[in-house]
Amino acid sequence: MSQSVESVDILIIGAGPSGCVAASIANQQGYKVKIVERSKFPRFVIGESLLPKCMEHLEEAGFMEVLKEQNYQKKHGAKFIRGDKECLFDFAEQYTQGWTWTWQVPRDHFDQVLATEVQKMGVDVSFQSTVTDVEFRGSDSTTTIEKVDGSKQKINAKFIIDSSGYGRVLPRLLNLEKQGESPARKAIFTHLTDTIRPQGPDGQQITFVIHKRDVWMWIIPFSNGNTSIGFVGNSDYIDSFEGATKDEKISKMIQDVPQMRDRFANQTTQVKAHQIETYAVSSKQLHGEGFVITGNSSEFIDPIFSSGVTFATQSGLLAGKIVGKHLRGESVDWEGEYINHIYQGIDTFRTYVTSWYDGSLQDIFFYTSDSEKQPSNVNLKRQICSVLAGYVWDKTNPFVRKHEKAVSSLSRVIRMSS
Ligand SMILES: Cc1cc2nc3c(=O)[nH]c(=O)nc-3n(C[C@H](O)[C@H](O)[C@H](O)COP(=O)(O)OP(=O)(O)OC[C@H]3O[C@@H](n4cnc5c(N)ncnc54)[C@H](O)[C@@H]3O)c2cc1C
């Protein structure tokens, strides 16, 4: 098969939110940017509930106007249900000054809007182009991509941004893969019609139902009338429906959840059920000579707080800026400007994920007392709400600055008074 060689300043692997944000930011600085994407868009991907923090990234990358035109379901907060108890976080009532809302989006649609917009900005996006190999020579590399017809192409780039999500191209090729620290969990999900959706906020907002201490269900309504349903948790439960297909498993699981049984019992499947196992991933290195890793390709902990896309856009934005600086010959402190920043967010969320699964955060969420309306309790809730809104870089928030201590001390106080 014939091989052609092309040269760009920055090659981005993957046209998900991370790759598109990185591409737009690099393009704004005048670089010749190319994205290579394995799939043909639109393609299904999970990760549909955004966080207010990522609106800043989408805005800076120039996507806000076109996204507002799509009329996606607005998300103003999140509701958690355990038994007969409910806990509602409203992003308008949070500690950090920032966005008070975001969207719930079918990702096939959302990602296609981003990719089309980035093409309009002048970025070359090559679909159905799978990266199979990368040769690094300092800050100069040759990437081989394979097209669906089996033809190969070589692309020379001064810098590579790996935003390949679950493809994890550079961690795999450079042997940087590391098992995530969280215990292996599984997730199974689908989209259903939602024809008896409740009126008002309950029919619109993302809801999490705690089914068992380490198994929970998400309900994410979309503006197209369909709703995303997913179950996440320990493998024993997810695997306990022996002989059932994935679609049958989800139906049986819904029957197991009294709060959602009636609403979803007779709905039609819109997307075949998918199952993902051991989704927690990590990389030994996020940056090296001539490359940086962003989004899910770098690290993913757990879906419980819907942080994945926000990390993807935050790291894509930062990578786009820093690579630009580097190529202009300005000095870059990768450790301070990129790696520490990314881990600040990851480590904060990790505390919340860990304490969610050990039950202590759930106890905080569902704690009620006569003093609930006292100013100090209201303040604590606002601080936690900012974390759930994705403001995990606001170190003035004690629930960010001293995340581990703040969560464990509060949970101890609550356990003693319950
Ligand atoms: C069960 C579950 C539920 C989740 N729910 C949420 C949620 O509600 N909210 C949220 O924010 N996050 C959620 N996430 C996380 C979310 O899925 C990801 O964090 C997010 O999609 C990451 O975006 P990205 O741009 O890094 O990668 P992706 O969106 O995965 O994009 C990467 C792109 O790279 C392409 N690619 C891969 N390999 C190659 C290759 N070799 N060559 C070329 N291209 C390649 C892929 O085709 C893909 O299009 C969830 C995750 C799981 C597992």
What labels would you give this structure?
418 residues; alpha/beta; FAD/NAD(P)-binding domain; D-Amino Acid Oxidase, Chain A, domain 2; 3 domains; 8-stranded mixed beta sheet; 7-stranded mixed beta sheet; globular; binds flavin-adenine dinucleotide
What do these coordinates show?
With about 425 residues, the chain is α/β, with parallel strands linked by helices. The protein has 3 domains: about 5-70 and about 95-180 and about 280-345, FAD/NAD(P)-binding domain (3-Layer(bba) Sandwich), CATH 3.50.50.60; about 185-275, D-Amino Acid Oxidase, Chain A, domain 2 (2-Layer Sandwich); about 360-415, no CATH class. Helices cover about 35% and strands about 25% of the residues. It has helices at about 15-30, 55-60, 65-70, 105-120, 170-175, 235-240, 245-255, 260-265, 295-300, 310-325, 335-355, 360-365, 375-390, 400, 405-415, and strands at about 5-15, 35, 75, 75-80, 85-90, 100-105, 125, 130-135, 140-145, 150-160, 175-180, 185-195, 205-210, 215-220, 225-235, 270-275, 280-285, 285-290, 290-295. The strands form 4 sheets. Strands 1, 2, 7, 8, 9, 10, 18 and 19 form an 8-stranded mixed beta sheet that branches. Strands 5-4-13-14-15-12-16 form a 7-stranded mixed beta sheet, sandwiched between helices. Strands 3-6 form a two-stranded antiparallel sheet. Strand 9 (about 140-145) and strand 10 form a beta hairpin. The longest helix is centred in the C-terminal third of the chain and has 24 residues, at about 335-355. The radius of gyration is 22 Å and the shape is globular.
